[in-house]
Design brief:
By secondary structure, the chain is an alpha+beta fold. It folds into 2 domains: 41 residues, no CATH class; 67 residues, no CATH class. It starts with 25 loop residues before the first strand and ends with a helix.
């Protein structure tokens, strides 16, 4: 039996373009309207969140937990990008699409769960 290949992200090891660390494992790129890539670079696990778009101002955070909630979500996105090698710009949409497939296979209604998630978000961002 032939052993399975390691995930592809291990094959793009190099120096991080942002901090210089020697353990860069994620590839990021700016996508142009024609679908081509520009400014592709390798970044390490610690710098990867810095490559994601940032909101200029966050909504209310009455229990001061939303930074933690966002960092937990970043772990999921980073793991998804590492496993699939999707572009960071596409990661959220691609993950949501895959969660639809997961929901189908696990007897859950994705739209119902998405509405529940919207309700949780609304509660977590209501001004105190």
């Amino acid at each position: 039996m032939i052993p399975a290949s390691p995930p592809l992200f291990f094959r793009i090891l190099g120096n991080c373009a942002l901090c210089g660390a020697e353990d860069g494992t994620h590839s990021t790129a700016t996508l142009l309207p024609d679908g081509s890539k520009k400014d592709e670079k390798i970044v390490c696990q610690e710098c990867f969140p810095k490559t994601l778009p940032q909101l200029p101002e966050s909504p209310a955070d009455p229990d001061e937990m939303n930074d933690a909630r966002a960092s937990w979500a970043a772990v999921a996105i980073e793991s998804f990008v590492a496993a699939t090698r999707t572009d960071p710009e596409d990661a959220l949409a691609d993950l949501l699409g895959n969660l639809m497939h997961w929901s189908d296979r696990n007897g859950l209604d994705f739209e119902t769960e998405l509405e529940r998630g919207r309700g949780m978000y609304a509660e977590e961002t209501q001004p105190g």
